[in-house]
Amino acid sequence: MGWLWWVGGALLLGVLEMVSLDLVLIMFAGGALAGGVAYALGAPLVVQFVVAAVAAVALLLLLRPWLLRHLRSRVDLPETNTAALLGRPAVVVADVDGMTGRVKLAGEVWSARTADGSVLPPGTAVVVARIEGATAVVAAAAPAPRPDAPPATGAASA
User: Fold this and answer.
1) Do 87 and 26 reside in the same domain of the chain?
2) Is residue 90 situated within a structural domain?
3) pLDDT digit string (tens) for 48-70?
4) Are 104 and 90 in contact (CB under 8 A)?
């Protein structure tokens, strides 16, 4: 009857994995199933826990990286957190230099600085190069070509 506790734990961890979608809790569920198998084979309680722990760690170290690699090759996973902000446009709201400043980024005001130490006045369009802690490291955005401007040529016209 004790194997039911192991199977129940595995099912609970499997349901929680459906919420987290991180492929960690399902590895613990595999460990719980291994503990249940150890119980069914008549192993003492300490051995059951050791088997469950070893199986869970083995699944985490061996199976999870392989699963994540194959999942990422099939599905584009959306960037989240600070990784989603890289390359995003922002607007300077307070002078930005190599030490301090403020930019409006994704609807929020962020502390910012420039990587090269240049000074950018308010209203300047910038692009996020990287995020360091709670500070956006920005660079001036390249100006967009005007639609009414003539195309640039390699030689100067006389």
Assistant:
1) no
2) yes
3) 999 999 999 999 999 889 888 88
4) yes
Under 8 Å between Cβ of 67 and 30? no
Its domain, for residue 136, covers 82-140
pTM: 0.50
User: In the listed set 26, 57, 74, which residue is the last one of a domain according to the structure?
Assistant: 74
If DSSP states are collapsed to H, E and C, what string results for 56-105? Answer: HHHHHHHHHHHHHHHHHHHCCCCCCHHHHHCCCEEEEEECECCCCCEEEE
Cβ atoms of residues 34 and 50 within 8 Å: no
Task: Give the separation between CA 84 and CA 127, rounded to whole angstroms.
Answer: 13
CA gap 93, 49 in Å, rounded: 57
